């Protein structure tokens, strides 16, 4: 079986089985979640951001992009990814507060739930798509690093989504997100897009990863484990740099 398909299935299983890791739901924040966040951020800064620089150079050299009026296409896409997921996080928190005020419990409304899930499904599909990228497959080691970082990132995302949406996430949301990874991988195997488009997708992913990790690590009520986060970021950075 294709290695990237095995990794896509494994990423889908993260969403399916993460609910069984009850020890992660502790306050102060479980050190393993903070460490997972550190690994994801390290991968973004050490591996993805340098690729964005190369992608920007490729984009500027292309005569077919049709967006000459934009000077920093790739970096703008990172900002778009960051901003979109920031908006989604604010919307979910506002919805939870409103639902509490009207006596419907500490969870988002149905409309916000589906908007959140559809957005993260597209995000997961993007990761599945990039997982099937032939350029990544050319290096098994690169593929493994991507899989590890995204698997831990999914674990952090799953925790945050379950906190916002409660039972409905377990009943429906996690299955949608798991399926989205496989669908994205299948689309990636069936289609081919330009290097410029791949660069933009990675840029959007980078912005999304940074926001989704920081929103889990920064709030004071989380009582997050800085040293665990720093250890995860430090160790994975060293691995990425020396291997």
From TrEMBL:
The chain crosses the membrane at residues 74-92, 113-132, 138-161, 173-191, 197-214, 226-242. Keywords: Membrane, Transmembrane, Transmembrane helix. Signal peptide: none annotated. The keyword Cytoplasm does not apply. It comes from the Bacteria. This is ZIP Zinc transporter. It comes from Laspinema palackyanum D2a.
